Amino acid sequence: MEISVTLFGGLRHFLPAGSSFNKCSIQVDDGASLDTLLRQIPIPADKPYLVILNDEKVDSEDYAGIEIKSSDDVVLLPPIKGG
Amino acid sequence: MTWQRQILRVDLSSGKCDIEPLNMAWADAYLGCRGLGSKYLYEEMDPAVDALSAGNKIVFATGPMTGTMASTGGRYAVITKGPLTGAIACSNSGGKFGAELKMAGFDLLIIEGESENPVYLHIEDDKIELCDASGIWGKSVWETEDLLAAKYRDPLMRFAGIGQAGETLCRYACVINDKHRAAGRSGVGAVMGAKKIKTIAVRGTRGVSPGGDPKKYYGIINEVNARLDDREGMARDGTLAMIDVTNRFGSLPTRNNRSVRFEGADKLNPEAMHTPNQNGHTNIITNGACFGCTIGCGRICHIDPTHFSVKDKPQYHGASGGLEYETAYALGSACGVDDIDAATYAGFLCNEYGMDPISLGGSIAAAMELFDIGAIDEKTTGGIRLEFGNAEALCQIAELAGKGEGFGADVALGSKRLCEKYGHPDLSMTVKGQEFAAYDGRSMQGMGLAYATSNRGACHLRADPYGHDFETTEIEGKAEIVAQTQRDTAFIDSSGLCLFPGGCGWGLEDYRALVDASCEGDWSGEARMKETGERIWNLERMFNLKAGLGKKDDPLPRRILEEPADVGTGKGLVCRLAEMLPEYYEHCGWDADGVPKKETLSRLGLE
């Protein structure tokens, strides 16, 4: 199945080739975990980010235990600050 | 030497301008800029005086890093008693004015008394004069700078002054330097207006050199500047990148904090700024940088000349400072307005008239809610339908507030006084009378505590709870984080460097290394940095206590404490301030009433 993932701010630099401005479509097997999905987005390990799944923040230790569905809204946010 | 070791004192009542030696013992304890300026203010004036009286003083303070080659080393601060808040006001700005003041030979400029007639201050190194400003009184910031630039014919002369809003004593009038950089908060521009000093024109040729080991100094400059090379898109997007983050997280204040998510954020975000509209017009032209900055987060923008706001006003068709994150919130989501050109125009007016866009937007948002509930009507507003989302009304009220005319004079009072006047004080989203910044204290609990305890009223730059707030809405640990980071930001603000590199590459150790390499004395230890920050924070608190503020002034509006956030990661939450505040006081070494304990003051040398 195909999952749409939105990346904001500087995380856009790590979108896979062929992505639109801040969205990419990631192909995963049915029943795949959130962790599996995120591993397909080439964000360097030293770049922190937050995962918002269907409007709720997900803790990193829960990534592996969450099964992704095709209707899911997955958003990655950089933890920037200021203004 | 990094400090110039002298201050300029201007007494507007007598017309005297004197150069005095800098108190180096105070520089040793308070570093510079925010800390040192606050120390002078605390020692020299009664905090209980009326902010708009001759008894108030206004200090323009540079830091030891101001004017150096360190990236972002162009900051200065304006410190005074704030007319908006009655608390200590310290508004920090970039641009090029601060470095120029330092290069003229001054760490601090202290202005006291009040002039009978409008004047401006002209500084060219040690040639200092108060000049008649009758020809520029009543002019905008932009007109004033153009007129004086033409007079002095020196392209490197820099200006910091007020527009009509400062003259008409708008409670959130700001000091604008370099046409679109602002010492924005707490009404510092109204203090200049009350003293009848229009602007400061400065040109300096003395340079600034490091006081320690130059080889070590330049080595560290190169090392830490390089860390800002990977800027996470900050040159392209600026601080506006934050709007997508908070909107999706659910902490973007919308419609006077009725909501924490704005459906029109996509029309105000970096993509909207970079994407041509139906006329082929693109809002942003380029980015801009302050003195010495290698990030360049500033937005240089222009408005579609066919847009309703400027179609008959060619004077606004050129480029100027565009929407930053805070202005996009205040003149956008806070008012429910998703028209990027209208918000940009209102932002231009803030720079031209000299108003803080955060407080202007917060005040208009409160007025829109008053209109929405029927507390005011078109008769009150002079025929303006002040509905949430009405971009034309936003622009009209911004114009009136800048001039202090019509209903704009009420909006120029600030949200707190406006809402009190019309019988609904609960609708003012303020702390100590100062409007919220662009983060909601329900989904970001640490920010709620930071707003409540900020010495200058609600502010997003007096603590650094961001990382923990994005991690969790649970409150454990937040009181300590807020208390600790308030000290850290006080230290950074006192250095002459910008807080922003802390969000895109620098750690506290980088700031410390820069200060240590450039300043006389040993600043290498973390303990000295922490203690200096803590001393400054407590000094500001003591100023406020002597001004009559206290625990009673550390609350949040009822909405944030009782009405749950409607969407996002904090959905269903209110700010748990009552649980965090006692713990925060303990971390500060204060008693249950928020008063620094004797042993705290003694340890910090504040007795």
- With strands numbered from the N-terminus, the spatial order across the biggest sheet of chain B is 2-1-6-3-4-5
| Whole-number mean pLDDT of chain B | 96
CATH fold title of the largest domain in chain B: Aldehyde Ferredoxin Oxidoreductase,  A, domain 1
Largest interface: A-B, 20 and 37 residues
* β-sheet strand percentage of chain B: 5-15%
SSE series of chain A: EEHEEE
Q: Shape of chain A, please?
A: globular
Query: What is the CA-based Rg of chain A, rounded?
Result: 12 Å
State the CATH topology of chain A: Ubiquitin-like (UB roll)
In total, the number of strands of chain A is: 5
Description:
The complex is a heterodimer of chains A (83) and B (607). Chain A is globular, with a radius of gyration of 12 Å. Chain A has a single domain (2-77), classed as Beta-grasp domain (Ubiquitin-like (UB roll)), CATH 3.10.20. Chain A has a five-stranded mixed sheet, with no helix packed on it. The mean pLDDT of chain A is 91. Chain A is mostly beta strands. Chain A is built from one helix and five strands. Chain B folds into three domains: 6-203, Aldehyde Ferredoxin Oxidoreductase,  A, domain 1; 234-249 and 254-428, Aldehyde Ferredoxin Oxidoreductase Protein, subunit A, domain 2 (Orthogonal Bundle); 440-603, Aldehyde Ferredoxin Oxidoreductase Protein, subunit A, domain 3. In chain B, a hairpin with a 3-residue loop joins strand 10 (175-177) and strand 11. The two termini of chain B are 30 Å apart. The model of chain B has no long low-confidence stretch (mean pLDDT 96). The chains are: A mainly beta (83), B alpha+beta (607). The interface between A and B is medium-sized, with 20 and 37 residues.
Task: Tag the structure with descriptive keywords.
heterodimer, A: 83 residues, mainly beta, Ubiquitin-like (UB roll), 5-stranded mixed β-sheet, 7% helix, 27% strand, B: 607 residues, alpha+beta, Aldehyde Ferredoxin Oxidoreductase,  A, domain 1, Aldehyde Ferredoxin Oxidoreductase Protein, subunit A, domain 2, Aldehyde Ferredoxin Oxidoreductase Protein, subunit A, domain 3, 3 domains, 6-stranded mixed β-sheet, 25 helices, globular
